[in-house]
Amino acid sequence: MSFFEEKNPEMDRYLENHASSEPEILKKLRRETYQKTTQPHMISGYQQGRLLTMVSQMIQPKNILEIGTFTGYATLCLTAGLAKDGKITTLDVNEDLAYLPRKYFAESEYSNQIDFKLQDAKEFLRNTDEIFDLVFIDADKEKYAEYFKLIKPRTKSGSVVMFDNVLWYGKVLEENPKQKSTQIIKELNDSVAKDDDFENLILPLRDGVNFLRRK
Asked: Residue 122 class from Cβ within 10 Å (0-12 exposed, 13-18 middle, 19+ buried)?
């Protein structure tokens, strides 16, 4: 649950009731995530999932990178716009939970286009020469600033990058935060805003999405 949902749950329900319907496979995955995981709030969820789907469908990317798979909800949302010969690489390090996204990836019509890797994202980015059309990051917040530095060379003009949880329950408003994750998220937001190679906008959806487009 986000900072904004806590403030106005009625508005959140209104927004969900006035958006496109959630595909059945995502309904099942969301339900099982709440039944079988200890931190189900980590799921991207309905509203953000619709955003990811629409962005992917507009871009029609050939190569997507996701950092932070969790149970695979966002992954499946992102696949909706994949080019016919496209693929999505999704990275996570949680071996205990890997059975759940694998189950739903296998059920998906995009199963052959999903490359699920149990691998550290920094290691992957340092060793890949791939260029990505669309990148979504929802992982360890204390690594966000490093991810941005490593992702930039792996993008091209027109590439879209999205960082989740960039408002951090409103903690980014703290002038001198003591929590390291808050410090790093503030550093990321500052770096993005000052980077002339990107144009960006922070969307106040759920816990905030920093939406970047490479110029």
From this structure: middle
Q: How big is the chain by its Cα radius of gyration, in Å?
A: 16
Query: Which of 46-50, 102-106, 151-155 comes out lowest in average pLDDT?
Result: 46-50
Report helix, strand or coil for 155: coil
202 vs 39, 101, 132, 147, CA distance in Å? 25, 28, 21, 17
Burial group, residue 156, by CB count within 10 angstroms (0-12, 13-18, 19+) = exposed
pLDDT(9) > 80: no
Spatial separation of the C-alpha atoms in residues 114 and 146, rounded to whole Å: 25
What phi-psi label fits residue 67: left (phi over 0), alpha (psi between -120 and 50 degrees) or beta? beta
| Distance from C-alpha of 80 to C-alpha of 56, rounded to nearest angstrom | 7
pLDDT value of position 5: 47
Does residue 151 surpass a pLDDT of 60? yes
- Cα–Cα distance for residue pair 73/78, rounded to 1 Å: 9
Strands 114-118 and 63-67: unpaired
Q: Residue 67: name the closest of 159, 158, 149, 163 by CA.
A: 163
What residues are paired with 213 via a beta bridge?
160, 199
pLDDT tens sequence across 190-199: 999 999 999 9
Collapsing DSSP to helix, strand or coil, 10 comes out as helix
The type of residue at 205 is L
d(CA 127, CA 121): 10
